[in-house]
Fold this sequence. Notes:
Layout: H1 7-12, H2 15-25, E1 29-30, E2 32-37, E3 43-48, E4 52-56, E5 59-65, H3 73-81, E6 83-88, H4 94-99, H5 110-114, E7 118-119, E8 128-129, E9 135-146, E10 151-162, E11 183-185, E12 189-191
Antiparallel strand pairs: 1-11, 2-3, 2-6, 4-5, 5-10, 6-9, 7-8, 9-10, 11-12
Amino acid sequence: MNTTLHFVQLMEMEQRKRAQFINSISGFRSVALIGTTDTKGQTNLAIFSSIVHLGSNPPLLSFIMRPDSVERHTLTNILETGFYTINHINAGIYEKAHQTSARYPKNVSEFDATGLTPVFKNDFVAPFVAESHIQIGMEFKERINISINQTSMIIGEIKFVHYPDNCLLDDGFLDIEKAGTITSSGVDSYHTTQLLQKLEYAKP
């Protein structure tokens, strides 16, 4: 037996329950830690599950920033410095990563609060997460405001990627499962993955 929920019923749900439900139905998705710093050197770390590949030439990734009706330290820092990092989450750090979603004051670094380790590489101004196995340095390129719900799409260009040597295949595929990257569903569920099969490029 299946259940059908219509728009009116969804909107009548208690707010947190509706958020959990809608977040779940979009399916499994990438989850990562975004590291930033302000112009005074105060670091910030926040978990995001809305990171999307936009294109490879140039290499672009985007993520969705919730409405800035309250302080959004990640957004403020990106707009100030123009740089940020995207760090894959693995099974060894997902609980600490989840804790970064708590609303800490600006003068408290989530690195310190959760026990994760900031590391600076290649003279990049934004901090990477030392415990992350795949780390991506990003340069801010564009902010697109979405009027229907006051969110923003933040678009960045990949400047460099750190990854385990044994995870890159000859065809350019980066085996993130081999690197230990996990995925998420809903707002608080984390999952490991299992490859079914890597298929050939599809042609008519």
